[in-house]
Amino acid sequence: LQNLKALISKKFTLESNMNSEAARFSLRGAVDRDSRPTKIKEGEERNLDAGVVGGIALSLILLFVAALAGGNFARFINPVGLLIVVGGTFGATLVTYSLYDINQAWRAFKEAVFLKEFHPLERIVYLVELSQLVRREGLLVLEEHAQEAQDPFLAKGLEITVDGHTPDSVKRILENEIRTSHERERKGVNVFQTMGTYAPAMGLIGTLIGLVNLLGSLDDPAQVGPAMSVALMTTLYGAILANLIFLPIAGKLRLRSDEEAKVKAITVEGILALGREENPLLMEQRLQSFLPEMEYRI
Question: How far apart are CA 126 and CA 31, in angstroms?
């Protein structure tokens, strides 16, 4: 009997250690499986992106300091050259894209500044916790969370799952929405990419205009300086707009689009698992495969 008690005690200790190790490496950390969370984080929030604002501001400040080093900042101000580059760039962009597309691109730019942060890890935690609720209370519990969800994509997925759509139907609806959203976001990227291409070209056009005026005013020394200023400053303005404004914004929007696509892919897989009332541990392991190992190791 004493040997049996010792064996049971040893087994209990071993299981406790294993559970402790599993909890230490689990992405859920302190999630209590036996209690219903009062509020589940969806993994999204809006904040001012200091990288976008700070990066552009820092670049412009450095250019300003470099210009001041010459002793006369006014020589870098040329309204005619700026009009050629800015007006030409937006005019050419209007030829390429519709006003609606350009408006959507500027809306995307505002979202890049006041960004909606995506946290794939928190989205996984959210879905795993929902899975625990579904296992205890059934699929109808998702209706409440669908109404409270701030992410429209997540809310829609939960709603159609509760409504009884088949897994194939749920997957098709959500994947179509992902594709449409991705195409819309890519169009915003393309608009800024296009402006980043047109701006240096307009700078070159301004340079050619300035050189033509320069050659036509060689007999009048008073006109040589302004003509040369237009020739040089338009190239500078085009390079600044392209490489400090338009192209970095396009790159930022592309990165944001990829991050959102990852979170939505995780959401689709999690919602399908909820519809199957899958074991939360199996769901967690499947969703973890979307992340690099370093993101879910504690």
Answer: 10
Q: Residue 193 in contact with residue 243, Cβ under 8 Å?
A: no
| pTM reported for the whole predicted model | 0.74
- Tokens for 39? 């509020």
Classify residue 74 by its DSSP letter: G
Residue 86 burial (CB < 10 Å; 0-12/13-18/19+)?
middle
Determine the Cα–Cα distance for residues 206 and 227; give it in Å rounded to an integer. 10
Q: Which residues contact 216 (CB under 8 A, 6 or more apart)?
A: 227
What lies within 8 Å, CB to CB, of 183 at 6+ separation is none
Band of pLDDT at residue 5, cut at 50, 70 and 90 = very low
DSSP 8-state secondary structure symbol assigned to residue 218: T
Tell me the per-residue pLDDT of 272-282, one tens digit each, with 9 for 90 and over: 999 888 888 88
Contacts of 128 (CB under 8 A, 6+ apart): 28, 31, 270, 280, 283, 284, 287
Asked if 157 and 127 count as a contact pair (C-beta separation under 8 A), the reply is no
Number of residues assigned to the chain: 298
Position 134, amino acid: V
Q: Please report the DSSP string for 44-100 in residue order.
A: EEEEE-HHHHHHHHHHHHHHHHHHHTTT-GGGG--HHHHHHHHHHHHHHHHHHS-HH
Given the structure tokens 């994509």, which residue do they identify? 153
The predicted-structure confidence for 191-201, as pLDDT tens digits, reads as follows 999 999 999 99
* Tokens, residue 94: 């209007």
